[in-house]
Automatic annotation (TrEMBL):
Compartment(s) where it occurs, according to its Swiss-Prot or TrEMBL record: Membrane
Name of the protein described by the UniProt record: Phospho-N-acetylmuramoyl-pentapeptide-transferase-like protein
Membrane topology: Multi-pass membrane protein
GO cellular component: plasma membrane
Keyword Transferase assigned: yes
UniProt key word Magnesium: no
UniProt keywords, alphabetically: Membrane, Transferase, Transmembrane, Transmembrane helix
Transmembrane stretches, start-end: 21-38, 50-72, 84-103, 123-145, 152-169, 204-226, 232-250, 279-300
Organism: Aegilops tauschii subsp. strangulata
PANTHER family: PHOSPHO-N-ACETYLMURAMOYL-PENTAPEPTIDE-TRANSFERASE (PTHR22926), PHOSPHO-N-ACETYLMURAMOYL-PENTAPEPTIDE-TRANSFERASE HOMOLOG (PTHR22926:SF5)
């Protein structure tokens, strides 16, 4: 079966841009990362099992979305509201599971967010549900938005997983094992599939990585380190969100949104300005390296 992913058209890029590239590369490394984590942490690890389940749920949603993109008829594609509903349900399910799960932590209470000194620990209660759900939705979408350049999403996600694994180490070492395993699997895929990519991870990979990052943060309470380590993803998401009211305003004024045809992530505008793809990716890597170190340090001093 020939599966191809068509990138956005109408942008001034290299000659291969716009040509079909095999998709669904996430199928090659997501299962490997989960299996390695279960092998090293043990099949009875509550933290790894719960995180793996949510990761797989997001992977299935992404896989169905990738398959639906092969269908020419738009009426047969998965509507965005269904994806949103499934991801929200997954976040709620995870919160319910987290309330009854026996995850080994140094605290006697759940739904706690460690804050940097001198603030200590913050009990969030039911607000934790909102935080976990919002993180799962935003991370899945953020990684998907970044997956537009060869190696950008995979490299940034691998680095962010390392930082989050270090941050979660004092809370639950099993979560660190899961994060490191997923980072290793993602790095292997990245090295094998370096620029120019022969296959893209697709939404099956980007959704799964976003779900993995969100669940590690939710299990350990390390939301602040996650926000720091995943700044590239949140920045791309913020740029897209800010373009929505502008697009609606232009459509209302002109009766059409031709003046602002597409809502695009920031790395597309960098390419429009003539910056080459490898330089954009390298810059994102360098920035994420510094943010990863900061996130890991902040997690260690907060726990």
């Amino acid at each position: 079966m020939k599966i191809h992913h068509f990138r956005r058209r109408g942008k001034p890029v290299s000659p291969s841009y716009g040509k079909p590239t095999p998709a669904m590369g996430g199928l090659f490394f997501i299962p490997i990362g989960i299996l390695v984590a279960r092998r090293h942490a043990g099949s009875n690890s509550s933290g790894v099992n719960g995180t793996a389940i949510i990761t797989l749920i997001f992977a299935v949603v992404g896989l169905l979305d990738d398959i639906s993109n092969l269908v020419v008829d738009r009426n047969r594609k998965i509507p965005q509201w269904i994806r949103f509903l499934v991801q929200t349900a997954a976040g709620i399910y995870f919160f319910i599971w987290l309330g009854s799960a026996n995850i080994s932590t140094p605290y006697n209470m759940k739904f706690i967010v460690p804050l940097p000194p001198p603030f200590g620990l913050a009990f969030m209660g039911k607000l934790y549900l909102v935080m976990a759900t919002v993180c799962s939705l935003s991370m899945g979408t953020g990684v998907t938005l970044v997956d537009g350049l060869d190696g950008l999403a995979g490299g940034v996600a691998a680095l962010a997983l390392v930082g989050l694994s270090v941050a979660a180490l004092p809370i639950c070492s099993e979560l660190s094992v899961f994060g490191a395993s997923m980072s290793g699997a993602c790095t292997g895929f990245l090295l094998h599939n370096r620029y120019r990519a022969s296959i893209v991870m697709g939404r099956v990979g980007s959704f799964a990585l976003g779900g993995a990052l969100a669940t590690i943060a939710a299990c350990s309470g390390m939301f602040i380190p996650m926000l720091i380590a995943c700044s590239v993803f949140f920045l791309e998401l913020l740029v897209v969100i800010l373009q929505v009211p502008l697009s609606m305003t232009l459509k209302h004024i002109h009766g059409t949104n031709r003046s602002f045809q597409r809502i695009l992530p920031s790395h597309y505008y960098l390419r429009l300005w003539g910056i080459k793809e490898p330089y954009i990716v390298a810059g994102a890597y360098i920035m994420t390296c510094f943010l990863t170190v900061l996130a890991g340090y902040l997690g260690l001093v907060s726990a």
